[in-house]
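User: I'm preparing a small set of examples for a lab meeting where we compare how different chains pack in three dimensions. I only have the primary sequence for this one, and I'd like the structure in token form so I can line it up with the others. Please keep the answer compact; I'll paste it straight into my notes.
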Amino acid sequence: MIHPETLVAAQRSFELQDAEAGAQRYYDAQDRKAKQEGFDRRADVQKIIRGAVPLVAAGLRKWIEEASQPKKGRPSSALAPLQELDPDVVALAALSRTFSTLAKALPLSTTAEAIGKVVQVEIEALMIQEADPKAAKRFLKMAEGDPSERSTTKRHESLKAALEIGLEWSRRMQVLVGGTVLHVLLKALPDIFMIKTIIDQRGTVLVVALTEEALDQIADMAQAAAWMQPLLKPMMVEPRKWEHFDTGCYLEYQVSRTVPMVRTFNREHQKMIRQAIKDGTMQEELDALNGIQGTRFAIDTRVLEVMKWVQGEGYQPAKSFPLSNLPEKPVKIAKEEWETLEAEVRTAKSRQRKSVMNIRAAASVNLAVFRTDLEEADRLKDLPCFYLPHSMDFRGRVYAVPHFNPQRSDHVKALFRFADAVPMGPDGGYWLSIHLANCGDFKTRTGRKASKDEFAERVQWVKDNEDMVIGAAMDPVPTLFGTSFASPFSNNCKRTMRLAKRKTLSSESSASTPTIHSSPPRRQRAH
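Assistant: Understood. Below is the structure token output for the 527-residue chain.
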């Protein structure tokens, strides 16, 4: 037996490791997002952009107001385009483009051109909205679901061509408009951006760069966010009891502070919960939550071994398993052939290709999750017991905090068993047989589905199939994968194995073995 103090020390160590792993996962995810979607898409950069938009928008309004005043000479070429757009929209677009280009150390003129292009696109979007509101709505819906800027630009150009509208801006015009917006942006945000001279293979180049203060701010925000993303896993000791809203169920504060008792962002809701805990009116809920997370679980190692075998063989016995045989990636049609196809055929082929690509993408995610589940089960299988911290959602529903929990798909549920066995009593076998027949819903000897037949027929089905039931316990692979079980990892199959196990142990301890009666046991009326 492992000493309790040793378990507590090990749990604390694991929690600190999980905090570090969560932070690294956050950094990796942000780097991947920046690489795939652009530096401006990082969470920390997005936070800076949201805070800077009002300042840049105010600067644009001031510039437009001053440029609109009567004066000698021609007005700025940027005035008319910027008057058509909401300054907040222009500010958001300009900030996104500036962050995107500075990460690549692009020349100042290229940054101005990029901002000018997005101003042009925004004006064209207004023209599309006016010409065909339904088409504009469809475009926005597709753009929201696709982070690829290249795809969005391609759809925009196609829609422009179909409606025969658009602006024919030269690069000079784009640089003039974008340069004006960039000048306003740099003036409004001197603590974030600066003009920097660099010398490389291109020669002497002026670029937009982040100030030291901005770099420190981004690093601090990234670090703060990263350490709020720990990997939340089952615990090898009983979770800390909930006594306050922020008590946290984990032992280390660094992890427990990320898990509130109730998952709600509503400040008023949080205030009411804190008050209810303080005055004792929520004590029953606290006791229930602590009772639930005090349940001792263990890994069903037999199921774990079967799942490993299934993964090794590449089977998919249930929909919750990742696909083993992925559909072939569609071959891209040559441009010349594509142009000869009718519009309906193009649409059908595009949808088919997108569907296959979505299936392949989902399969890779499911496989990663599946492997993580097996790794977690392997980590826990040698422990005498483990616990699942729980919390509530804003409606009061109780959920496990770790992702690895029995509230998920059948194959994950099947990995869990109670660490502390309790005798089912003399009538346990009878009711377990009925429940087994209900879950499997096999056809009984009367030809009816078990769930619709008499109790006696359901019990009889279990008796008639005793060899298969015992076989499932003795050697699950050929038994479960050679029958008509819809899902070998569903609860009915686990119950088959449990019932079979009790049968095989009957000779060792007949007094504690549940009896399978053919008729319902008599129930005593409570007085």
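A couple of notes for your slides: The CA atoms of residues 220 and 370 lie 34 Å apart. Residues 422-512 form a domain with the Helix Hairpins fold (CATH 1.10.287.280).

User: Perfect, thanks.
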